[in-house]
Write a structure and sequence with these properties.
mainly alpha; single chain
């Protein structure tokens, strides 16, 4: 089952594909040779993409660029609290490599480097933003649930 199917299936109901969704999404879901991507398949390249994007720094970087617009490295590092220079560099490079972030070097002395979202990155960041807001609004409940769980199971 693909993530698209999983998102549409309700417990107790069979998975159905909307014909319009099938037509519109086929090109995006297919790789070279017409093979469909399936994030649940162990060796599917979409799983690697999913895992890379699920990295907390990547998500936060994308959301920061969406919320604040183009930023320099130091601005991103301040905005994404707790990220080290090494992890920010690595995450930005991966996002740039994946076609999500654009790195622009301005020919000045010293050179000025600015990071911005590409259309694909903007699309993803717009999907992530509600997840970030959900986390902010529900963090208190989850902290309480964790404390209760730990107390019930004797964990520190």
């Amino acid at each position: 089952m693909t993530t698209e199917e999983a998102a549409r299936v309700r417990p107790g109901q069979p998975a159905e594909r909307d014909e319009r969704d099938e037509q519109e999404g086929r090109d995006e879901r297919e790789g070279r040779g017409g093979q469909e991507y399936d994030v649940f398949a162990r060796l599917c390249p979409s799983r690697d993409v999913f895992a890379e994007l699920a990295d907390k720094w990547s998500m936060l970087i994308l959301m920061s660029l969406l919320g604040c617009g183009p930023q320099r490295f130091s601005e991103l590092q301040r905005g994404v609290g707790g990220v080290s220079r090494k992890m920010l560099t690595q995450s930005l490079r991966n996002l740039e490599r994946s076609g999500l972030v654009l790195r622009t070097v301005f020919p000045e002395t010293p050179p000025r480097v600015v990071y911005d979202l590409l259309p694909l990155g903007r699309e993803l960041a717009e999907l992530l933003a509600p997840v970030g807001r959900w986390a902010e609004h529900r963090a208190g409940r989850m902290v309480v649930a964790r404390e209760e769980f730990d107390a019930a199971h004797g964990e520190d």
